[in-house]
Amino acid sequence: MTPPLLEVRGLRTEYRAFGGTRVVRAGDDVSFTRERGPTIGRVGDSGCGKTTTCLSLVRLLPAGAQVTAGEVLLEGRDLTGLPDREMQQIRGREIAMILQDPMASLNPLFTVYDQVREPAYHHRAMRGAALRERVRSLLGSVRIPSPERRMKEYPHQMSGGMRQRIAGAIALSAAPKVIIADEPTTSLDVTIQAQYLDLLKGLQRDTGVGLVFVTHDLGIVAKRCDDVVVMYAGRAVESGPVRTIFERARHPYADALLRSVPTMGSKEPLFRIEGQPPDLADLPPGCSFAPRCPLVADRCLEQAPPTLEITPGHRADCWFAQGSGPVLDAVAPGGGAAHTNGSTST
Amino acid sequence: MSDALLQIEGLQKYYPVRKERLFGGSRGQVRAVDDVSFEIGRGETFGLVGESGCGKTTIAKLVLRIEPPTAGRILFEGLDVATLRGKALLAYRRNVQAVFQDPYGSLSPRLRVRDIVGEVLEIHTSMTRQQVTTRVHEVLELVGMRPEHARLFPHEFSGGQRQRIAIARALAADARLLVLDEAVSALDVSIRAQVITLLEELQRELGVSYLYIGHDLATVAHLSHRVGVMYLGRLCEVGESIEVSTAPQHPYTQALFASALPTKPGDQREPLAVVGEVPSALQLPTGCRFHPRCPHAMDRCSAVEPVLQPTSTSRRVSCHLMTAGSEVVGREPAAAR
Ligand SMILES: Nc1ncnc2c1ncn2[C@@H]1O[C@H](COP(=O)(O)OP(=O)(O)OP(=O)(O)O)[C@@H](O)[C@H]1O
Ligand SMILES: Nc1ncnc2c1ncn2[C@@H]1O[C@H](COP(=O)(O)OP(=O)(O)OP(=O)(O)O)[C@@H](O)[C@H]1O
Ligand SMILES: [Mg+2]
Ligand SMILES: [Mg+2]
């Protein structure tokens, strides 16, 4: 049996600051499997550890951060123990990451051409006219206008959305097997966003590249992903097929998330989750979401909930996960924007 | 109009681009913003939308005086911003705050969050250190952060947290106008809903105005009173946000709003309404800038550039189909007749 393309087992990442007195648990026991084919979407609160988990996969963690448990298997090979030099070869060639901050992938001193060219030159030994054509076509496919002229310019001459797409072109340059895209479309308007996502999906169809999308945009998850992992406070709290979760989210945080999306043409107040997400350096006992949860019971404040399998492949970490329909219907019937919006259109 | 807080008149910004030997050494220009006019009233939110690279951030930079315009004027309470000096300029810098598109580059890496957020108070007010700290804690909590975050540095935060630090900084000084360039784009929906609700409350209570730039059309339509739709450096439609989002008139606006991603799986709406090559601000089409991609293009569209014309008391559209007097747009392609 061939091993899955990418498998993550019990990954735990921590940041230490103030001489170890402030320990931020940014990824706590995160596991998922990336088969060839479907696309995984990861959503969650700002600051819940999505970027950190991705950075630990490609070993680009900043100083002070550390993977303290778990393994990352790329086609069965554990990356966590590899020496840095080998990891450098794998990064870009086998597994590439589109960073959330496009400027972090771009060097202000080099032209766009030099930067998009680099992975293809280095990892795929492309040279001369073929290399130039590769760069031109990559820039064209991420919808940079006049690529031939624009590739001679520098990052500061690009608009926000262009930089983001150029960072994408760099990740695609050496045709890696896995692409981890951290909020790849935050600065893109809807049309370019759709074209860019289609490009990634098309690549996946043609080359079988594995895609992991980190996003807070539920529209992207709805339309472009097959499976979704919802994270809260460093943990995966609900996971399963996209459709199932949109129709009957069984973790209150996941359901609340779906209800806070604004609907086009509506001036209704938005659904709000009261309170703030916890500081990851100071997590409450019991369920991390309990202090904000509309369904909270005594037990939730004392005991961390188990992971319940509701239907095969659909899991949620909540004492109330068993049942049917969106879990918050008990307190806010009728559903929110995401549940009603578009349900009547074709 | 006299009750406008900010008036923008004929604004232009051209960026020179590198000499291109291939093209006989001619010096190219990116026409990032080209003859844009609109105004923002007191207590009003003006939304600015349009394709990536159409010039939205450039307008924000011009309003903030980060760059000088090539031509045109920006008036704040009737005063030409370009002529402000000394005290008047300081007051302007306090009254107009911004959240930039890039939450990483806009926070000084060497300052603690407390000093980043409190800076404007220390420069522009006579508050004591303690008062500033208290205010910093207050605004951090407003955007869903914690007081203890004040002692940390920007690199210790996630993308969305940095964006909230930038929002807190903009809120700290009780500005009159906030320029919000993709200010909530890195935020998850729950925090985003919280920040949007906060912005609406502040507007109701203090009458602050917003120039809100965003690509999330549902959010823009939700928050804005009026919106301007840009295409390749020009405004192609301006009007009440409800009207523009539910009954767009310019073919580009129609395509744009038709392309909003659905929020539910299985929804069949296909988001690829704007077809054709991405236009380049380096080589502008003749006539109407949108005509190469417009399903309704007529002969006149490739020859004559349309200007913004009122189509009702609250709406202006730059399209030959509208000035022809008939409401053909949206019914059948004019080219087919
Ligand atoms: N260098 C660092 N030192 C200390 N703590 C950090 C550091 N980088 C991130 N953190 C903390 O780790 C947590 C997770 O951050 P991460 O960037 O993974 O979040 P995220 O899920 O990607 O959020 P967002 O959606 O806002 O980008 C945050 O609470 C953040 O404050
Ligand atoms: N300093 C500069 N030098 C040369 N060209 C520039 C410069 N800054 C911006 N441009 C160009 O001006 C045009 C408009 O850029 P701007 O950043 O205003 O776009 P935008 O509408 O904000 O796009 P996005 O949605 O992608 O952020 C783009 O073609 C861009 O490449
Ligand atoms: Mg992140
Ligand atoms: Mg911009």
Nutshell version of this structure?
The complex is a heterodimer of chains A (346) and B (337). Chain A is 33% helix and 23% strand. With 346 residues, chain A is of the alpha/beta class.
Oligomer: heterodimer
Unreliable segments of chain A (pLDDT under 50, ≥5 consecutive)? 335-346
Which structural category fits the helices and strands of chain A?
Answer: alpha/beta
Topology, number of strands of chain A: 12
* CATH fold naming of the largest domain in chain A: Rossmann fold
The SSE string of chain A, one letter per element, is: EEEHEEHEHHHHHEHEHEEHHHEEH
Shape of chain A: globular
CATH architecture of the largest domain in chain A: 3-Layer(aba) Sandwich
Number of alpha- plus pi-helical segments of chain B: 11
Small-molecule binders? adenosine-5'-triphosphate, magnesium ion
How many discrete structural domains of chain A?
2
The top-level CATH class of the largest domain in chain A is Alpha Beta
Describe this structure in words.
- The complex is a heterodimer of chains A (346) and B (337).
- With 346 residues, chain A is α/β, with parallel strands linked by helices.
- Chain A has 2 domains: 6-225, 3-Layer(aba) Sandwich (Rossmann fold), CATH 3.40.50; 249-336, no CATH class.
- Helix content of chain A is 33%, strand content 23%.
- Chain A has an 8-stranded mixed β-sheet with strand order 6-7-8-3-9-10-12-11, sandwiched between helices.
- In chain A, helix 4 packs across helix 5 (128-141), helix 4 packs parallel to helix 7 (160-172) and helix 5 packs across helix 7.
- Chain A starts with 5 loop residues before the first strand and ends in a 6-residue tail after the last helix.
- The model of chain A is unreliable at 335-346 (pLDDT under 50).
- Chain B is an alpha/beta fold.
- Chain B has a domain at 254-262 and 271-337.
- In chain B, the strands form 2 sheets. An 8-stranded mixed β-sheet of chain B has the order 6-7-8-3-9-10-12-11, with helices on both faces. In chain B, strands 2-1-4-5 form a 4-stranded antiparallel β-sheet, with helices on one face.
- In chain B, strand 4 and strand 5 form a beta hairpin.
- The two termini of chain B are 41 Å apart.
- At the A-B interface, helix 1, helix 7, helix 8, helix 9 and helix 10 of A face helix 5, helix 6, helix 7, helix 8 and helix 9 of B.
- The site of one magnesium ion (MG) has 4 residues of chain A, from helix 1.
- One adenosine-5'-triphosphate sits between chains B (15, 30, 32, 52-58, 101, 281) and A (156-162, 187).
